[in-house]
Structures are given as C-alpha cells and as structure tokens.
Amino acid sequence: MVVSESSARRYALRDPDVRLMLRVRDGSAEAFEELVVRYQRRLVMILRHQLGSQEVAEDLAQEVFLRVYKARKRYVAGAKFSTWLFTIANNLAANALRSKARRREVHLSPGDSGGMGVQTLEKLALAASGLMPTRLADKAEMRDVVRVALEVLNDRQRMAVLLNKFEGMSYADIAEAMEMTPQAIKSLLCRARVNLREVLEPYLQDGSRPAVEEEDEEI
Amino acid sequence: MSDDASNAEPSALEERLVAYLDGELSSGEQRRVEELLAVDPRARRALQRLEHAWESLGELETPDFDRTFADSTIEMVAVAAGQELQQSEAEVPRRRRRRWMISAACLLVAPVVGFLAVSWLRPNPNAALIADLPVVENIDRYQCIDDVDLLRSLQAQGMFIEPVVGLPTSEADALAAPAVFGLSAGQRRERIEAMGPESRAELARRWERFGRLPAEEQARLRSIHEQIAGDAHADQLRQVVNHYGHWVGTLPAYVRGELSQGDPAERIPRIRQLLRLREDHPGLTGGPHVESRVNMTVVVLVIPLRDRKPVVEGVFAAVSQDFSPSSASLVLDEPRALEEMILGFCFQSGIHFVHAEVTHLNPMGAGFYHLGVNITQVLEPADYPELESITF
C-alpha cells in the first residue's frame, strides 16, 4: 500500500494506537503489550461472534497479534490502527470459516445441519416462545435468540454488523477492513439490518417463533 | 454460520433509514429524512422497527475472557521472535554472521527479553482491568457524554475548562484524576498497586459496574476515551470532560436527554442558556424554570400504576413526540384509560424511568391518539424492583 507522508503523519497525530504501533516497529515491547491489552477483548469479542467459538476466537486473536508483530517492520501508518488490525482479523476469520466449510463438506451427511443456523434458531425460538410469550423476555433467552439471529446472517453481513455495532466503525473504515467499497458496505449493512429485523421482530413483539424460511445447508 | 446472502430485499426507504441511523447521510439527506419522519408515521414505525432489532444486539454476551490471554499472547510472540532470530541466523553467510549477530541481538533479543520480563517476571492477573483502567476510572463522566465533537466544540469556545460555579465538589473527583490518561500498561499497574484501600474499593465497584454494561456501551466508552486521549487538545478536553460531565450529572434525566440530541452547534446555545439559568438562580436544579420543548422521537414504554405500584403485565409501547422539562407528548395506537403511569425510555447510557400524570388524550387522525402527560418525578429503578424486568 502506498501511503503519502502527510497521510502517515495525520494518522500518527490523530490515532494514539498508530503511535504505539510505530513504537512497536522501532522495537518497543512495552508498546506491543499495550496494544495487546487494549485490543484483546474487542478482538476476541468480534471473532467470538463471527466464528461461534470462544476457543477458536482466542486462538485466532493470538494469530492476529502474531501477524501484527511479524509485520511490524513493514508497518506504515496508512489507516487507523484498528482498521488495519481488523483487516487482518477479517482475512483470518474468512480463511477459518472457509476451512470449516470444507471440513463440513467432507464430514457431514446430507441433511445434517451441523449444529448452527436456521434449524437451531427455530428450535431455540420455539423453546423460548413456550416459556416467555411476552415482550418482557428473560434476558438470557433474549441473548440466545439474538445470538442465533446474528448467526443467520451471512459471514460478510455478520462481520460488517459486528464492526459497525461494537467497534463503531464508519462505512468507509469497514470497507477498508473488509476490502470492499463503502457503497457495497452500505448495501450489506442495510440487508443485514433488515434481515435481523425480520428474524427478531416476531420474538421482540410477542415472543413468538421467528418466521424464518428453511434454507439448504449453508456450505 | 451461513455463507449465502439471505434474504429480505430492503426498500429504498429502508436504505435511507439505515444510513440515517448509522449517521452516514449528508446533512441535506439527513434533514430530508427528518422531515419525512416528522410527517409520515409509517416511516417512523419503519425506523423504530429497524432500531429496535439493532438495539437487541446489545444483548449479546461479552465472551468470558481468560485474563492470562495477554500474557500467553506475548509469550507466543516472544517465542516467534526467537525463532525469527534463529532462522535469520541460519540464512546469513558465515563470514558476515558475527557482525550481523551484534545488531540482531540489539534489535531482536532485547524485545524478546522485554516480553519475557514483562510476562514472566511481572505476572499480570488484571490485564483486562489494566486495559480499561482509564475508562473505568472515568465511567461516570463518559456515560454522560454522547459525542466527543460536542466536547471539542465546548473546548474551542472555552466552556467547561474551569469548574461550573456553584456546583458541589464531586466525591468521585479523586478517581477521575486526569493522571490516568496517557499511562502505559506498566504505569497503570503501578497506579493500582499504589492505591489505598478506599480507592481500591471504589475502583472495584466501578469495574464491576463497567462489567455489567452491555458490550456496545463498553465499546462506546472506550471509543470516547480513545478519541479524547488522541486529541491534539487532550489536556483541555480532560478538563471539559470532568466539568461538563459533573454538570450534566446534576441535570434531570429529561434535560440530559434533550442535550444528547442534535449537532454541537445546536446544543451549545442550549447549554449556555442552562448555565445562565443556574447563574441567575443558584438553587436551580432543573424543572419548571426551563420550559422549552424539544422534538424527540423515541420509543417509550408506558407502565400503568395501580396503588402506586407498576403493573408490568400492562406495559405497552408508545412513541414520544416531544418533551419539555416537565411534560411530554406521546402518540398511542389506541386510546388507553390511564391517570398516572411510569414512562421508561432508553438513551445510550441506559433505561430511564419517570413518573407521569395524564393531562389529556385526544384523537389525532389515522387511528392514532395524542397523550399529554406531566412529568412529576425522575425515578430510581432501585426503588421499584418491578422495573428490573423491563427491557427494550
């Protein structure tokens, strides 16, 4: 990536994490530790919801930090540090999801849902609706329904939602992290929001089972 | 985890509303959407439906976090750095190796030793607290702040650089000391270690409160801190945070809600007006002295009262039309026979409850009804255990 000197200066001036990363580039272990401490929770959270596994998320987050360290000498301040970090995270998460998909192709028999997706949502929502038919949903049930609703989104929609919702990233920053155009991100997030509404609304209104159509096995 | 794009096709209106909610519209487009929302109940409903589902994501759990994560990550990187060193050594021609070794030792071994020293000699069981220390220590202040641009505008106009005259000294000032800004992880650790028992107990309470916040709110507070710490005028912004946060904390919830809306350019005159009122009337704590109305469309949960107790089974949703410091106008989709009630509404810092008494109920066309209420009291949820089950 070609970055002008003025851009690099601007990012270094505005973003304290860019300044930390520049110190890492110059060999500061303390600055690296600071970055790990600052981002570990945020990174694991995004990866946890993107990949559906705490253990895998922690492993992948460590891999992200390792790549940051290995790339330190080539680092130039061409974006906010968080955008750069989540670009690496998005690429690793996409690879992990592709590997997971390939493993499912080999191991799953036709019709096996693999434990995630629409059937799980329906079972969960059905169970929840039997227990709590009002808007005053039990928080844990609500959390489970929301979690599974998120998993119904496709991988790119879900990553864009997580970056937008929990990192507060702008369309432009998400576009950079996901290597797409801002217009594509706008469209992606709009579809994601509408999909979330369609899945969650029946539950939010009266605790009833979400009207989600059966899909073929996703992989 | 699906890999296929699902599903519902968004309408043009939904596309505009989503971009509006995300703050991604130009000021002209934003104004047009707001004009539409003001006159079109269908657009308002569409906005609320999108917003409601989106806010539900705040219910997602913050994953359990292994606090040794940072240590093991740093150890892993230290090992990788060591391997990098060995590999580089093997690739260098023998005759150049000695000279190379000297510089490589400086560049690579020192960080490795640094990592190992940090991770092994100074075990760090509170990595998560250390990471969030500046946010946790300033949690009261940051929760009062909706956007940093307002703080920047206040700082640029020289407002809140000094304490607001007449405000009592905050008990929390000791922990909100600006010293925590800009400290490294090691310095934060030392700061905690140097705290006395009372400060530690207060920090523990704040840490617990921070841990109970939804992940979205935690991320918002971290973002506020990072923007302030990274600002060219960070020192003055810290003062503005302290003094503005302290002042806002003394205002009634509905006035705080009013101040959380709109551009800084629109809010600052209102802030000046409130400050002047306080100067003119030192005993003023908000309320009937300040009677301007503000248009604010939020979903409001109406909780009927029976014998002064909330009837949570009877809760229903309405949409606010406007608020003043002592009253509110709501839009209902059917007439309701109520005399008094609790209203619950959500701002970024959480759900707020007020007690209200009905003044009038009028049909407003298209099957909707206009409910006027006087707000009589801001309620503490702790006083009404029934309200704990209310969620948005």
What does this structure look like?
Chain A is mostly helical. Helices cover 73% and strands 0% of the residues of chain A. Chain A is built from ten helices and no strands. Chain A has helices spanning 5-14, 16-25, 29-51, 54-70, 81-107, 118-131, 139-152, 155-166, 171-178, 182-206. Chain B is globular. By secondary structure, chain B is α+β, with helices and mostly antiparallel strands. In chain B, α1 packs across α3. The chains are: A mainly alpha (219), B alpha+beta (392). At the A-B interface, α3, α4, α5, α7 and α8 of A face α1, α3, α4, α5 and α6 of B.
- The computed structural class of chain A is mainly alpha
The coarse silhouette of chain A is globular
Total domain modules of chain B: 4
Question: β content of chain A, as a range?
Answer: under 5%
Largest interface: A-B, 83 and 73 residues
Q: What's the alpha carbon Rg of chain B, rounded to whole Å?
A: 26 Å
CATH architectural arrangement of the largest domain in chain A: Orthogonal Bundle
| Secondary structure tally: strands of chain A | 0
Sheet having the most strands of chain A: none
Largest sheet of chain B: 6 strands, antiparallel, barrel
Q: Widest sheet of chain B: strand order?
A: 2-4-5-8-7-6
Q: Regarding CATH, which class of the largest domain in chain A?
A: Mainly Alpha
Which spans of chain A have pLDDT < 50 for at least 5 consecutive residues? 106-137, 211-219
Helical content of chain A, roughly? over 70%
Q: What is the strand tally of chain B?
A: 8
Averaged pLDDT of chain A: 78
State the helix count of chain B. 14
Instruction: List the uncertain runs of chain B.
Output: 2-6, 94-107, 115-125, 171-178, 283-291
